[in-house]
Amino acid sequence: MLFVVVNTDLLYSEEKPSGAENYASPPSTKVEDVRSEARRLTRCLSQASFPSESNCAESDMRDHQTINRVHGSLRFSVYYDQLQAFLVVTVLQVEGLVGSSQTSGLQPFVKIRLMWAGSEGTELESQEGQATPSLLWTVLQEWRTRIVKGSCNPLYGDQFSCILQDKDMINRITLRMEVRDFDKFSRHTVLGEVRVPLGKLNISFPLELQEDLQIPQKDLVGEVLLTLKYLPTSQRLEVGLLKVRTAIAEPSSDAVMYARISIQCNQSKLRYQKTSAVPRCPITVFNEVLMFSLPDVPVEQCKISVSVYEMQSTGRSNKCLLGQLSVGKDRSSEDEHWTLMVRSVRQPVAKWHGLLL
User: What residues does the C2 domain cover (predicted)?
Assistant: First the structure.
């Protein structure tokens, strides 16, 4: 049985307004058309910035700006102590970076994730329309280096370590390191990434490597079963979160999971809503429906964003972003579900979606 959950949180937007110069009229123009002024004010209001939760996971929830071309390389070392089951990762230096902003210098830092290859998921449709089973990944550990300001060749020497009791886990772990340009007032820019499968390396002694940065890619970390129902008369959209399938490397009885769902219509984000926290398991069942009142815009201009988080049920602990997905007409891979929703008026339509990180 599905339960309706209605949240009355304040309006929320994670997008920062563009520079004021984008809205100013040309110097030679003295009289501005009323329609142009209305469009300008609409853009300003729709992209207004509201305060968000001051949490590290909140900054990760926003889509990171990426670049089409990458420059530079990353020098690091990896070592696994078999006697103490200790994995040590040291970030040494990033070389040859090219700044993405012309107004300020680079402020690079490196984000490190240990990605563990878990079980295979269901058959999800790719952009080519072919359904193939995909491997589900999970994050074992996550670290970040300090920020080095104003350098295209920053030196770090930051060392991170963790305990891996099962030696066979090394063969299923990929070291994923992203070089990012820190921005306090906007989104961090991903300058490039390096992926190293640890199972293909001999890391029984400290091994130093230098790899060229590559274009960042997303990993499939889970699958979400969503239902969509559109009510055109009342201009409402019902988003149902039924199940979330994830890979778990180390089960924890204190781990709980919840989802945050928001809708963006015509560049304007509506208030977000949260589901209840449910104990995390390989297949977490929610069976909750969230109802959104849409503005007077075509439903084709709307997009649904779902972010799944994990936190500890006992004590105060920072939440951790597990993955994100979006459903909308502008996404070719999600076009089928959106089309079925529009055709099946007042009837819920269910479909599995990939959760990416």
Answer: 70-211, 220-353
pTM of the complete model: 0.78
Task: State phi, psi for 67 to the nearest 5 degrees.
Answer: -120, 155
Q: Where are the beta strands (DSSP E) in the chain?
A: 3-5, 65-66, 73-81, 86-95, 108-125, 131-144, 155-163, 173-181, 189-197, 207-212, 220-231, 236-246, 255-265, 268-269, 273-274, 278-279, 283-293, 302-312, 320-328, 349-356
* Partners of residue 179 on adjacent β-strands: 110, 192
Q: Which token pair is 259?
A: 């989802």
Distance, CA of 200 to CA of 345 (rounded, Å): 52
Cα Rg of the chain, angstroms = 22
Domains and CATH numbers, the chain: 3-15+48-62+219-356 (2.60.40.150), 69-212 (2.60.40.150)
Sheet strands side by side (includes 155-163) = 155-163, 86-95, 73-81, 207-212
Q: What's the average pLDDT block by block, 10 residues per block, for the chain (357 residues)?
A: 42 39 40 47 41 42 62 97 94 89 77 90 54 78 95 96 89 96 86 96 96 95 96 94 92 90 87 94 96 88 93 78 88 72 91 94
Amino acid at 249: A
Taken in order 38, 41, 47, 48, is the CA torsion positive or negative? negative
Residue 356, helix vs strand vs coil: strand
